[in-house]
Design brief:
A hairpin with a 5-residue loop joins strand 2 and strand 3. By secondary structure, the chain is an alpha+beta fold. The longest helix has 19 residues, at 50-68. It is built from five helices and four strands, in the order ααβααββαβ. The protein has one domain (2-150).
């Protein structure tokens, strides 16, 4: 019964996590939040325009692909999250806030739940990357993504 109450985006995120099975997975893309000068709260998924949900899903897939690559920033982040998981006994997660330009390139990225060195590495990884499409013109930013580490199958 609870599955019926999950948002379409939450169901999609769960399906992606099962399909990919390992690495860093965007387990829930949260909707675009307020302007940077406002509080850090973000909007609920409920009642969001379909275009916003579709765009969040696209960005989620791109970020997931970038973080799953076998490069130094990805390996460092996975090692750090795995160590934190062993210490805490739970799946670690963090929040990525992305500001995306009208041309689809990431202008800015901020993070919660990771250390400074990880955040610096991820900013470098995301800077100027093209997510593949421009954001909907009426979509507020930043886009919030909740990311977590899934174990290898």
């Amino acid at each position: 019964m609870s599955k019926q109450k999950r948002s379409p985006l939450a169901r999609l995120a769960g399906a992606l996590a099962k399909w990919l099975g390992s690495g860093i997975v965007a387990t829930g893309a949260l909707l675009p939040g307020p302007a940077p000068t406002q509080a850090a709260a973000y909007r609920s998924l409920e009642g969001a325009p379909a275009a916003w949900l579709n765009y969040a899903s696209l960005v989620q897939r791109r970020v997931q692909d970038w973080l799953g690559q076998d490069d130094e920033p990805g390996r460092r982040l996975r090692a750090s999250l795995e160590a934190r998981s062993q210490q805490q006994g739970a799946t670690p997660s963090f929040i990525a806030r992305l500001w995306i330009l009208a041309n689809g390139k990431i202008e800015r990225a901020d993070f919660e739940g990771i250390d400074v060195a990880e955040a610096v590495a991820l900013r470098a990884l995301f800077a100027g990357r093209d997510v593949g499409a421009p954001p909907p013109a009426d979509m507020s930013q930043p886009l919030h993504l909740k990311l977590s580490l899934r174990g290898q199958n």
